[in-house]
Amino acid sequence: MNLIFYLIAALTVAGSLAAMLLKNTVHCALALTVALAGLALLFLNLDAQFAGFAQIMVYIGAVAILVVFAILLTKGSETPKDGVFSRSWPMGLVIAAAVFAVFGWAVLQSVSWLPQATPAPTVTVEEIGNALMGRYVLPLEIVAVLLTLALIGAVIVALHEKEGAE
Amino acid sequence: MQETISFTPFLSVSPIAEILWLIPAVPMIAAGVGALLKQPKRKAAAALAIGSMSFSLLLSLVAFVHVVAAWAHGAAVRETVNFSWIQVGTQFGGGQVDLGWVLDPLAAVMLVMVSFVGLLIFIYSVGYMAHDENFTRFFCFLSLFAGAMLGVVISNSLLLLFMCWEIVGLTSYLLIGFWYQKPAAAAAAKKAFLTTRIGDVFFLLGIVWLFAGTGTLLFYNHGAGSMEAQALTGLLAQHAALGLTATGAIALLIFAGAAGKSGQFPLHVWLPDAMEGPTPVSALIHAATMVAAGVYLVARVYPLMAAGAHLTHGGMLLSGTTTALTVVTWVGAFTAVFAALIAVAQNDIKRILAYSTVSQLGYMMAGLGMGGVAVGMFHLITHAFFKSLLFMGAGSVMHGCHDEQDVRKMGGLKSVMPFTFLTYAVGMLALCGFPLLFSGFWSKDGILEAAQHWSVAKTPFYMLVFGALLTAFYMTRQVSYVFFGRWRGHKTAHESPAVMVVPLGILAFFAIALGLIGTPAWPWFHAFLDDRAVSFDIHGFMEPGLVRLMATSAAVVFLGLGLGWMLYGSRSPQAEEPDALEKSAPMLWGWLRDRLYVDELYGVTVIAFYAWWARVADWLDRRVWGGAVAGVAWGFGLWAKLNRFLDMNWVDGSFDKSCEELGVGGGLLARIETGRVQTYLRILALAVVALVAILIWSSRA
Amino acid sequence: MTPLAGYLLVAALVFSIGLAGALTRRNAILVLIGIELMLNAANLNLIAFWRYGPHPELLTGMIFAIFSIAVAAAEAAVGLGLVISIHRHAHTTDLDATNRMKG
After folding, report:
1. Which of B688, B696, B700 lies nearest to residue A99, judging by beta carbons?
2. What is A1-79's CATH topology?
3. In chain A, how long is the greatest CA-to-CA distance?
């Protein structure tokens, strides 16, 4: 395990922690962006260049922006009076900790079964393209439809409210 | 099974014997049809009754002629037609109960007497009951009675006789209580029924014993009948209690039944009260026929009664006597005197005649006991005619005096109702036994002669002679009160219509004429019944002691008539004045007028005991059994309450409780549904934790 | 610890953080952010397994992760649209307050 991995991992964890703990919602969104960037770097570290760049383009470039828009549209920048955490936040924390514990246990338990080191695969965009159009053409089409539907659905949801409000 | 037992070998029954059953059946059917008629149909009811009775009379005459003809040719007839009725268990060797009818001289004379007297009384009733609104019901009952009585007469089976006997008792009850709205009539009917019932209980015991002892209840059945030699010798060998043989015991039991029906002491108490019924009923049932049924029964079972003593072929007592016959004689003689004494002090015209009937029945029983079947039956036949004549005459008198019954309020009727007077006088003289001319003399003399020659004791003879004296005395008293002297009533009297008076005349004729067939010179009747040859022989009077006996009885009769006339004669004392005899012996008179207190004795002993027992039974029923039932019901109520408690509290309660708990549980579960997304998410996460843990745990190996 | 285990642990950590945030924050948008983090952690898992698992030349993990990104984007769009609608309706994004479905 090299140093770069630890650095990027620390960045990612810090970012996600900040995203969940900060009071200001916009700050959370920005922290999310940092976390997403860290994850993209981790992808690159794993020799999944396409996935890393796709992550940057889609997540950081679209989802994060969308989140910011949503925050601005719902007056999320204002800090609520009762506090940002729900009344029963310890319970949630405990549950999350339990989940982490169980996953950690699963991982550590199976350490001996995991492979030590394998050579890096060389993946070209052409191969990915071939795979998408060949083996995974069906999921591709379905996802295309799904995206279309999501687009239409989001528009409709937003539209109805607009008419209802008037 | 049709059999002919006769003294000559007839191979089959004659036609008349085969249709003999019609004689009782036709009046019974007429009664059944009459029961369906409505009240206004009087002519139809009377026509039915009189028509059926005429038919029975016709057939009876045919049967009588048939039997007489056979006897006249020297071979008397006894034809029986028997059939099996029910099968009883195999204890008595294939035992079955047979019924059947018999035609012999005894049955033939009774048939003719019953149907002839019955027909005359039916015709008389048309006039007597003309003003009564229940005319049709009366004739229906009369027909039923006639049918049943004729059934008793022709019955060859003791069981069939008992069945018809019971119907006779029933119709007697119905007819005594005909005017049931009168409490006295209803009470009298009940009394008659219950008193004869007591006799009938013993009668039934006798029947059962006879069946057990001989295996048959038929009288005559080819030598296998219960009145025939084989059965009787068998019974003689069996011993009952008190030194009696089975024959004696059975005979006494059967006599108890006869004593009830024929009003012998101590079961005589119902007969005088039975005068509450209409006069034709008194004439037919309580003078001529039903009360004679008891005498007829004794005559029918005479072979049983006389078993052990010496008998002739036909049943005349030759020598010796049995215990049963001795008892019959004593009871009869005692009843004769007892009733005659009471009759002396009575003031009701019908009651005098009722006690006279009881007395004469005692004579008949004594005659059967001492002299045999023919002697007793002759008196029965003659008595039937003159007693029914007397009753119908009394009815005519009552009708003419506007329903007055007290003799002290009558008088001087011989000029107002001459025809009634004439016929009544004939009947009265026949009853007294006026010498030579009247049938009563010959029949009573037959009994006195038998009493004189009785081997056991002479006392019955003296008692019967004393009874004859009393009979003459009280009849003279009655006749002088009613017909002589002066009229003491309120309205004027009148003669009765022809339809009532003509039967009186016919009966009066026979009251005289019947004497001719029973004289010692030509004892046709006795010979007929005893199956002997007979011829007119004036030397019949030359029997030793017979003329002396006739003179004695004549003297007694004249003495009685003379005493009566002397005391009463044409003097007509008012009702309030004491009777002439009463003045001389007031205490004795009082006793006699109060009927020697037999009814009162019964009231204090039997009836009081019965009332007490009824109270005990009522207490038992109400307190003990009723209490038990109430207790059970209370127990059930308790059980029901317990069940209700269990049901409401445990079953219902548990059910309700569980439903409540379900609700509570549902409420508890609903807490998960907070409506908040993060709660659902947490639950999801927990589930994931659990699942993963399980997966990992189970894959550890 | 193998490299793969390290990546998996990081992924698990990011997942748990995202879950913790989703379970505890009141703002609906922050819940969605948490969900995005969880999805991304899953993507990391996928890529890590692709890299260190058998047959990486099949590109299964990579393609799976790409599709996951696409679907996550669509879902984020729709989800945020819904949050905006709810905000218009209830004038709040506080999840503690939205319990209309309480039963």
Report:
1. B688
2. Four Helix Bundle (Hemerythrin (Met), subunit A) (1.20.120)
3. 63
